[in-house]
Design a protein that fits this description.
Shape: elongated
CATH class of the largest domain: Alpha Beta
Number of helices: 22
Number of strands: 13
Number of domains: 2
Radius of gyration: 32 Å
Strand order of the largest sheet: 4-7-8-1-9
């Protein structure tokens, strides 16, 4: 509901409610009705949430239509907090409140003593303020040091002294986060980290719809939607959700990681800072590089050396992608190029943003995070390259290396040098075009395609690679069938570089 005009007093508000221009409803009813409106119009419910349209979102919609308090249960990096914050879009744009009230009291039925006294004194002339929806969302990260006073409230001796009040007066109350979320949404992240006795303090608001402030014979019938998040690992590692509280939570909704590479790439494209500004070169990320970055997370989630209970966050490919683009920027600046196109080789330079994103099992600890990270990248390249190269004829390029050819490249070599050296390898540039690089592609994109082909052949164990020799033949090259079915006695391969001439036997 947009902010109404001409409503400045309680009397104005009563007349507006009577004629239907201002709705009066609970938070759960408000969210439900606004959700129904969105469903009927077909507009996106939760913009920016990718990959949950057929799984999590329908369950969440059912919970909201049922007017349930709910919990999102899932591993780290599964957009739980983003989903909670997206609930704000289902609130009215503005609601009427008592001016300067700490708990956003309803001007027609205030629940705090100060607002009740003001309404009794001023009647229909009592001023009305308007609260925007973003201010109606309160979020708390649960930590073991949170107290019941933080959540619910306590006596404030300073307030009593300044006002000359007795400690027993309701006006000396200091409200906690929960009462301050009145007529809004109260979200608690990582619920199991909240001490058990604090979780007990949430019972009343979930079932009876009220809280009781410590030390006061007072009951506050709050109007609050409650939402929680939790990680299944927390049930044993750091704490647990006590059974009576779980019983009072209406719906438990399981989140998950992206099910396919396409959804994962869409999330990373949305979240990663790849479109750089300022005086830096223009940046570009080819599709095959983006696929490799995403595949690292998929490989990590199924690797036995990595702890599956902790999960592998979607932040891994997001951070890795930012490092990949930065390495491409660094190379372009060093070589004074106008366009920084990411290469697969840049992914290895992103190891610092990868190794800290997963917890390892004993076997992984023995190998070390960097070694495991490099092996994950190689496995990711192999998986992606197999999709691009499996249907292509790669024999000509492989034979060039089998016959003694070698090609030294690094992540700092500029575009011109890559293309110059690649022309010596028979069929390499043609193979890069066949793998998806357009004929009219820029030199920098072609260089990236060449790098992808070479890294793909290496990851698929078709050629070797070392620090000293660069790309070269595998240690034990397998003789591959020839089309002519006979051996030439002394035939050379014309495209072999100077000093690398070999003969068929």
């Amino acid at each position: 509901m947009p902010r109404p005009t001409g409503i400045s007093t309680v009397g104005d508000l009563r007349r507006a409610i009577a004629d239907g221009s201002v709705p009066r409803r609970s938070v759960h009813q408000e969210v439900r009705e606004n959700l129904i409106t969105k469903l009927r119009s077909g507009e996106p419910l939760f913009p920016g949430i990718v990959g949950y349209d057929d799984t999590v979102v329908p369950q969440l919609v059912n919970a909201l239509l049922s007017q349930h308090n709910f919990i999102l249960l899932g591993l780290r990096g599964q957009a739980k907090t983003r989903l909670l914050r997206a609930l704000v879009t289902l609130l009215d744009e503005y609601i009427p409140v008592m001016p300067a009230c700490e708990i956003n009291d309803d001007p027609l039925e205030p629940i705090c003593s100060a607002c009740r006294a003001r309404l009794a004194n001023e009647g229909d002339k009592t001023p009305v303020a308007w609260l925007e929806r973003d201010a109606r969302y309160v979020e708390k990260l649960a930590t073991p040091d949170v107290t019941i006073a933080d959540m619910v409230g306590d006596i404030d001796p300073i307030k009593a002294a300044r006002g000359g009040l007795q400690l027993s007066s309701e006006l000396t109350m200091h409200y906690g986060l929960l009462p301050r979320a009145n007529r809004g949404i109260f979200a608690i992240n990582e619920l199991p980290d909240l001490a058990g006795k604090i979780q007990v303090g949430l019972f009343n608001i979930l079932q009876e719809g009220d809280v009781q402030i410590k030390g006061y014979p007072v009951r506050l019938p709050l109007d609050v939607m409650m939402a929680f998040t939790a990680n299944p690992e927390d049930y044993t590692a750091r704490g647990k959700i006590i059974t009576p509280l779980k019983d009072r939570i209406g719906s438990e909704i399981r989140t998950h990681y992206p099910s396919g590479r396409g959804d994962a790439m869409a999330i990373t494209a949305q979240e990663a800072w790849t479109k750089r500004d300022g005086v830096a070169p223009r940046t570009e990320v080819p599709a095959f590089v983006a696929e490799v970055v995403e595949e690292i997370a998929f490989q990590a989630r199924q690797d036995r050396r990595i702890d599956k209970r902790s999960g592998v966050s979607q932040r891994l490919p997001i951070s890795a992608m930012e490092n990949v683009v930065s390495n491409a920027e660094r190379r372009a600046l060093m070589n004074r190029e106008d366009c920084a196109v990411a290469r697969v080789n840049d992914v290895y330079s992103a190891l610092p943003s990868i190794t800290g994103k997963f917890e390892m099992e004993y076997e992984g600890e023995l190998k070390g995070a960097e070694t495991v990270g490099r092996e994950l990248i190689k496995a990711a390249v192999a998986n992606v390259a197999d999709g691009y190269l499996s249907h292509l004829e790669t024999r000509q390029v492989i034979e060039w290396f089998d016959l003694g050819g070698s090609l030294q490249l690094s992540d700092t070599i500029g575009t011109k040098d890559v293309l110059s050296r690649a022309r010596d390898v028979q069929g390499l540039i043609e193979l890069a075009h066949a793998a998806g690089v357009p004929k009219e592609a820029s030199p920098a994109l072609l260089a990236s395609g060449i790098d992808f082909v070479l890294e793909g052949l290496y990851a698929l164990k078709k050629i070797g690679r070392s620090e000293e020799r660069g790309y070269h033949a595998t240690e034990s090259p397998v003789r591959r069938p020839r089309e002519d079915k006979f051996r030439d006695e002394e035939r050379t391969i014309p495209s072999i570089p100077q000093g690398k001439k070999k003969y068929y036997n």
